[in-house]
Each structure stands twice: as structure tokens, then as C-alpha cells.
Design brief:
- There is one protein chain.
- With about 260 residues, this protein is of the alpha/beta class.
- The chain has one domain (about 40-260): Aminopeptidase, CATH 3.40.630.
- The protein is built from seven helices and eleven strands.
- It has a seven-stranded mixed beta sheet, with helices on both faces. A two-stranded antiparallel ribbon has the order 1-2.
């Protein structure tokens, strides 16, 4: 094998003692990066993804109501409040079918609609091992009053992770200012495979890279667990118009600030 000297790779060739002619290299023109597109509320396309489907309804509440029903009701209210605040292009997305196929379907629908932002609406439960049995209206039911609160999830696999995290923090701040507490149990070992990295310990933003609705969308995206419906007291609160209005107002305020900063 022949050794190649470093000088031969770096220096111009020499022919008969004369230096090779120096070629003029045109100076590259400086082109500034394009400025971020201004957010105009009436044109800002927000998708409110209703978590789960009528066929695959997610968690069951302490009083045997489906999570999908909670999600749909809250998403519709948030949509109304956002439109009233000037976000006229807001759309509530309801998908159908079995659990996993519906996840890809909702991400594809958001991308097809060229969404500027996706907010996925859910209500929380706990791992089955933490459930306790009780009877409600003559039927066997399950609950866990040990944990409660809302939580926010973002994915580093989302192409707009920083924007997603920024909105999640804004929403967490608005919820906190309204007296609500976030669910802290996701950092605990007892959560097992549901344990998550806490990105913001002040307002409860967690990292969850594997969520399809967050990682497969082309826009910024956040998943909101609005509250625990397996906690008997919090289930009652989540069913109240007062709590629903409080959450809707927090989302609207956070979206307004997010759009203004953008």
C-alpha cells in the first residue's frame, strides 16, 4: 500500500518548479434565513384531536363512562372558545375505527389539512395494578383516588419540538394560574412502562416520544390529559361545566400568547 502524504492532499500541484495558476473563487453571497411566518389567528389552522374513538373508547371512568365521551365534549367546547377568540380555522377532528389504525389516521388527517398546530384532548387514568374495586349503581366499577391532575406531553420526534414544548409550557402556566395541579405520578417507578421524563417540573410537561399523534404530525403538537376520570372526585369535577370552561379558557389564552409570540 502506498502512503499518501498530507501535503499532497492540501497543497496545489507543482509543475516544473512553477506554481499552478491561482483560480479566483467567487465570494458566496450571504442570504439571511427566512423570517418565521407571522401567525394570524383567523388563518392559523388548529386541529383539536378527540382522543380515541367510539369503537376504541380509551379509559373507563370510576362511574363507568367512556373517556371518548369526555374528550369529545371538551374538544367541542375548546373549539368554540378558540373560534370566539378569532381562531376561525379551528377544526375538531373525530376519527373512527380500532385503536392503533385510528392513531395513524388522525396524524394523516392533520397533515392533509396542513395543520399549523395539533392539540390532542384526553382524560387520564392509572395502570390497572393501581385500581381498586367498588360498586356504582349496582355495577362493579374501578377507581383510584390516589392520583389526580392534568398533564401535558410532547415528543422530541416531532419536527417542531421546540414550538410544541413552548406551547405546552404556556398551557401549563395557564392551568396553574387557574389553581389546577398537574399529575406528578409519571415520574414514579410504580408507573412502570408509563413512567415519563419530566421536562418542566413547574407546570407538568412530560416527554413521550412514542405517541403517534405527536411524532407523526408535520406541525407542532401537544397532548393534554385534562384530568383524571378514574379519581372519583376529579371525575365529578371534569363533568362540571365550570371545570370544562376553566380548561377551555386556559387553552384559548395559551394559544393567543403562542400565536402572538410566533
Amino acid at each position: 500500500m502506498l502512503a499518501v502524504s498530507l501535503a499532497a492532499l492540501l497543497l496545489p500541484s507543482i509543475d516544473a518548479g512553477r506554481a499552478a495558476p491561482v483560480r479566483k473563487v467567487a465570494k458566496a453571497r450571504f442570504r439571511p434565513a427566512p423570517a418565521p411566518e407571522k401567525c394570524e389567528p383567523r388563518k392559523f389552522r388548529i386541529i383539536l384531536d378527540v382522543g380515541h374513538t367510539a369503537e376504541a373508547y380509551g379509559a373507563t371512568s370510576a362511574r363507568n363512562d367512556t373517556e371518548f365521551g369526555f374528550n369529545l365534549l371538551l374538544a367541542k367546547l375548546i373549539g368554540e372558545r378558540l373560534k370566539s377568540a378569532g381562531f376561525a380555522a379551528t377544526r375538531v377532528l373525530v376519527t373512527d375505527g380500532k385503536a392503533r389504525p385510528s392513531l395513524f389516521k388522525r396524524a394523516a388527517a392533520a397533515n392533509a389539512a396542513r395543520a399549523d398546530f395539533v392539540l390532542s384532548i384526553h382524560h387520564d387514568s392509572v395502570p390497572d395494578k393501581l385500581l381498586e374495586e367498588w360498586e356504582f349503581e349496582g355495577a362493579k366499577s374501578y377507581f383510584s383516588d390516589r392520583f389526580g391532575g392534568h398533564s401535558l406531553f410532547v415528543s422530541e420526534r416531532n419536527p417542531h419540538f421546540r414550538a410544541s414544548l413552548a406551547f405546552a409550557r404556556l398551557l401549563g402556566k395557564e392551568l396553574k394560574q387557574r389553581g389546577l395541579q398537574y399529575a406528578s405520578q409519571y415520574t414514579l417507578p410504580l408507573m412502570g412502562r408509563y413512567r415519563r421524563q419530566l421536562l418542566d417540573k413547574d407546570v407538568g410537561v412530560y416527554r413521550f416520544d412514542e405517541l403517534i399523534v405527536l411524532s407523526r404530525t408535520n406541525s407542532a403538537a401537544v397532548l393534554l390529559e385534562a384530568g383524571s376520570i378514574i379519581n372519583r372526585d376529579e371525575e365529578m369535577a371534569m363533568n362540571s361545566p365550570e371545570r370544562q370552561e376553566l380548561i377551555a379558557s386556559a387553552v384559548t389564552a395559551a394559544m393567543g400568547e403562542f400565536c402572538e409570540r410566533r
